[in-house]
Amino acid sequence: MLRRPKPTDSEADLLREQQQFLTSGASSAASVVRRPDKRRGEAGGEEGEQNGENEGGERDVVTIEDLPDQLPSLTPAPPKKSRFKANRVTFETDDAEERLDRHDPHISAVLSRIVERDTTSAPVSLPVLTGMAFPRVMHRSETSSQVPVSSAGSKKSIFACHLAALRLKEGRTPLHCAPGHSEQNQPPETSMETTQSETTDDTSGPRLVSGQGLQGPDGSAETMRIHRENQAKIQAMTQAEIAEEQRKLVSQLDPRLVEFVRSRRAQSVPSSASPSRQPQGKSSEGKFPLDNLSRESDSSSAAAVSENTPEVEMEEEEEEEMSAPPALTEEDLPVKPQKEWIHMNKLEPEKLEWMRKLPAPRRKGTKKAMQARFDFAGNLIPPTEDLPTHLGLHHHGEEPERAGYSLQELFLLSRSKATPQRCLALSTLAHILSKARAGEYASVLTGSVMSTLLDAGLLFLLRFALDDGVEGVMSAAVHALRALLVCAEDEECVDATFSWYHGLATFPLLPSAQEEEDEEDEGLPDIMKETAKEKEEKKSDHDVARQDVVKGLLKMKLLPRLRYILEVVRPSPPVVQDVLEVLTRITRHSSSSATQVLDCPRLMETVMSEFLPTSWTAPSSPLPPVVYGQPLSSAMKLLRVLGTSGRHACARLLNSLKARERLSCLLSVEPSELLLEPSEALRITTEAFRLWAVAAGYGQACKLYIDLYPSLAKALQSVHRVLNPSDPLWPLQLQWVLALLSLLTQVTHTAGCHQELQTGLVSSQGEECPPPPPVSWSHVTGLQASLLGHLKAFVKSLDDPVQKESSLAVIPSYLIYLQAHYHQLSRQSCFKPVETLQELELLTSEVLLPLLSHHAVQSLMKNLKSSSYVCNVQSSHTAAGTTPSLPGLACTGWRNRPRLVAPGSPFPLVTGLGLLLETVTGIHKGLSCKFKGLLLSEPVIGYLQRCSQATPTLSHTRAWLLRHEHHLLYLLLRLAHRLVPVEPEVARHASLYHQVALVLLPWLLPGSEFLAHELLSTIIFSRDFLSEGHSGGPEAVELGELRLREETHHRSSPSLQTVGSLLREACVQLPSIRGCFLTHLAHLEPAVLTSRDALLGRNPWVNSHLLPELTGPSLPSDWPFLPLVSLYERAGVSDGGGLAVEELPQGALQAVSHCLQWLLLLEVWREEALKVIPPVAKFARLSCLFLFSSDMFLERPVQKLTWGLFRLLTRQTRLDSLDLSVPPPGLASFQDLYSALLTQYEAVSFGDRLFGCWVLLPLQRRYSATMRLAVFGEHVGMLRSLGVTLEQLSVPIERFTSPPEDSLPLLRLYFRSLVTGTLKPRWCPVLYVVVLSHVNSFIFSQDAAAQEVEAARHSMLRKIYYLTDEVLRNHILLFRLPQLQAELGFDMYDKLPPIRAKWLESVLRLQDSSDHQGD
């Protein structure tokens, strides 16, 4: 592509670009054409050129010496060649003059051919005689009354119009009208507007036959006679005859001619003519046969025409029922045009249609979808609703009868030149986005409004509008951007969980990672591949925004524009609020987005100086017109979310941006003493407490605690006073108290780490160690007595109906604080065990047990199942307002739904209680038994039973809430871990707790790796929770196996007697099994340590409160197969495609044995825990056992365990659920894995029966024939060593033989393997029986089939009959049914049944007759 010249280009650059342009042969962007000006007397053609030359001669001309008159050609043109010169034969003796006369005839030859036209019938008009010496000058106002307007809309000169008016006065017909069609009786203003479609075919005259060339005065009469004769013939023909003639005519005519005639017909009939104007009884086929003829002639479009015709007819019927309005006349106009008005001499109905009354809206009951239309508030307008026009919702769009604007029309209006229209369109889009986020359109619109708008380019539209110079448009764009990015209910819901356990942490709102395959990087070494950042920079804005909306906005330089709006434009308060909320949502996106917000020049400085000043004046009204110079809670929230993104970001806020001074200024006095509106004062101090809590979560801003300790103590004393339910500000005051308690909890955790850091600093000897915080344990130890007194008072106030709601809301935060206090107290050097144990006993008897037994708490715990996200996966609220590129939390209407964060949810209270019990029972183990009532309560047991059967899905809309529910489940399991060994009543439910632990483990999300490690270390592999292992479980399995053997003795099925002993041995090896799995999970150690620091309150070691990206659970769902998969991946893949088997690590055999033992335990006693793993995934993971080593599967322990697993996996119910057509997770297809298995079997199996059973399993008839083709085609040599017997195969043989095979290539391979001796019963008994069954069924099948199949069947039957191997021939012909008890594995007929014998005879006779005919 050629670039435009730049101002910095030199003359050499311009010449080079000119040469490139001429070489490319591209057309010029513009060409200069001088048109003659008739007003100045210039004429076209040669005169115009001459005038131009004369003018050019008068101008100044710059001449240069030695400049040639004619510019040289830059690109030499090719020589011109004559197309006829090669056909001419010339001789040197020919006379040139004669040759010129021969090729250039004289003018006389042309003149001699001129024939004079017959003008006898042409009318002659003479000028009208007047008494005036000169013609009267006409005025424009006279032309409209004298001259009718042409229906064709062609322009006429004034003289032509005047001449036509004179002819009408004299009563003569205009020359272009046919005789017999005088328009004298029509009004002057409408006589020329009548269309041809308004007349009937009998009188309108022919359309194709003009009569030109007929001699005599009656030429027009002859034309009409021919036309009437044609009409009579057509009317006398039937429809079939007409169609046949049409086809003949089209086959003879040139298709281009047909299209030309159709186009002439289309031009002659105006498109505005409606079917209602046609006279009844006349079909369109009778009027325009050629059009239908051409449509029927095109065979390729016949189907499309037949499909579209009913729809068109239906529309025509609807139009006829609605009685289309007549054409608009001058009398219908509300304002009559005057003669003096310029350009109003012609009536244009199509432009004046909007002046009619609106047609009726769409009838109710129709099922046809229509375009969605919205009012200015974003409400969807039903298609049948008839709204008054004074609302301003009707316009001249595609559907003028419908009120409202479509999305396409709003996009068009948003780019209008009129400022009010742009503002109106953007504000309407903002309302639509808000309602779409709220899910109001989900039930009435097809598709997602958000996705539709984003795909249409909404981001670019809003970004362009932000650059608008008009403040109103810019404000509307900011409002629309806020509606797109921000969901107020999501923010409220997240803020409500801030005071929960680990509620500071949040997931980044990143779209789900989509791996893109880059073909350019394939085959390149890692060092030469492009990094993710380089690939991101190469993408266009559209590509980035399509995958990630926030990242696309950042790439479009949104942050500098928002800074300009805040700093320079200084908009109104609502716009400032919207900008701050948009910045908060961008910060929640990721830590990199938060860093960009901090790094944007002067952005945060503007926010701090303008919206978080250190001094301000009291506002003049509750809603001040200007918020500059006033503290805003939304600005403080922005700082808090920025601080959550990381330790360094929080330090920059506190130090560089002086946030520490703002905290001191706002929190040193009570909210009521701030010069702010009361609600805003509560909001901003609440956000200040939260920001301080976030900083304290990193061990920062703790010196501020010492400085503001008097203010904090004063605030604690006012807690009971401010929590007055009758106060209208009670919700804000409640959040203020919870934020204060969260701050004290984080400060307590930080102070508890002071001693450890101090000790580490002394012993570090130069190694990196965090500095100890300025606050120590002595600074916070006095808080416990005051807060414990508060808790006791709130527990007592549960009996007061007025204070009940407040008490239930604040008690969880007090419990979390007490847990932090006792957890850190046990780690201090001043810890006094005896006093602490007595204190804990007192706490249990006075607070915890009364709280647990209180009726308010018991009734609250009954809502566990209804409020759970895990138990209500199907009924969970769908994320209607989110898209993959813009994830959200889907918290719309969270206050009104019984969910985990709803006001009546028991989760915060039970979680806080479980957290405190975990710490208390860890310090004082004797108190564990007093809390068994919690685990044995009916609500908790029912809740755990429901959780053990649930399969929750993972998404942004559920992850942040599922994390809190996982905390509760973990704490309940930890309490069960303490009680199961000592409490028989609790031990009865040990299997339930173990089942919940197994299903919870693969649910745990990033950031909860420490919880997974604790579950694996304590409960998962605990013999106490596998109660079947020590309560007769293996013996029960053995008894069941014996009973099964007795019931199925007639089939001699394989015995499962080894499974019981294997289970008994596995239970003994549980500690070793746990060590094996923890070893293979050692790569998660960094994540486990990071998670431990955050969950245990080791604040100085926490780097960020932003959780890892939500890419999936912490552990894969198939973690029980992890040792096998790890060894398979360690083996690697060689360049040739096979496995590069290396030396296995030491202990590989033991690791494989432990893995198989654990899988055997789960398959027998915890089958529900493995239901999340598809059967095909289990089979694929176990197949790794045969692939990562050449002899591991031959080891005796492995053989025994694998045989037991194979027999469990091939039970009847398991076989039915095994679907090999579904690709296993992590593999492209099962066929690839099976191909590797076949190759490995041929190489290293040595005829192993276990490996043989594994290979035979996918050859069942219900699976794809591709795998059977691979065995009998590419790997046919393995049939010699596949010696699995029918007794060893635990799969019924009927699954291989039924239904009969229908793949002809596979049947030919079967037959070839039999006749060539590749497949023999002593080498491969199972497949020999299977092949015999399919070949026998094929050759004796008499079902109708294709000719090729019949020929193959006859040929195969004849070849079998003439086989020299009589044993094989008898096996094939006399095969009856598979039979396990038979010696060969199948039954045979003594002789062929009569039907089969007759069929064989007929095939042989047919062959003999064909042979005789050939002779």
Give an account of the 3D structure.
It is built from 67 helices and two strands. The longest helix has 24 residues, at 956-979. 53% of the residues lie in helices and 0% in strands. 33% of the residues are buried. The model is unreliable at 45-58, 143-153, 172-203, 269-322, 515-519, 1046-1057 and 1133-1140 (pLDDT under 50). It has 1415 residues and is mainly alpha-helical. The protein is flat, with a radius of gyration of 46 Å. The chain has a two-stranded antiparallel ribbon.
Distance between the termini: 75 Å
- Average of per-residue pLDDT values: 81
Query: Helical region count?
Result: 67
Q: What is the beta-strand fraction?
A: under 5%
Architecture blueprint of SSEs:
Elements: H1 11-24, H2 46-58, H3 96-103, H4 107-111, H5 140-146, H6 158-170, H7 201-204, H8 219-236, H9 239-252, H10 255-268, H11 284-287, H12 289-297, H13 302-322, H14 349-352, H15 407-414, H16 419-437, H17 449-455, H18 458-466, H19 471-485, H20 488-496, H21 532-538, H22 541-547, H23 549-555, H24 558-569, H25 573-589, H26 591-599, H27 603-611, H28 633-644, H29 647-655, H30 659-667, H31 678-696, H32 703-707, H33 709-717, H34 719-722, H35 730-752, H36 754-763, H37 777-780, H38 783-796, H39 804-825, H40 833-853, H41 855-861, H42 864-867, H43 907-923, H44 932-936, H45 938-948, H46 956-979, H47 984-987, H48 990-1000, H49 1009-1020, H50 1033-1047, H51 1058-1068, H52 1070-1080, H53 1085-1095, H54 1122-1131, H55 1148-1165, H56 1175-1187, H57 1196-1209, H58 1212-1217, H59 1230-1244, H60 1249-1256, H61 1265-1272, H62 1294-1297, H63 1304-1315, H64 1325-1339, H65 1347-1361, H66 1366-1373, E1 1375-1378, E2 1386-1388, H67 1394-1414
Antiparallel strand pairs: 1-2
Helix pairs in contact: 9-12, 15-16, 16-19, 18-19, 19-25, 22-23, 24-27, 25-26, 25-28, 28-29, 28-31, 30-31, 31-35, 35-39, 38-39, 39-43, 43-46, 45-48, 46-48, 46-49, 49-53, 50-51, 51-55, 52-55, 54-55, 54-56, 55-57, 56-59, 59-61, 61-63, 63-64
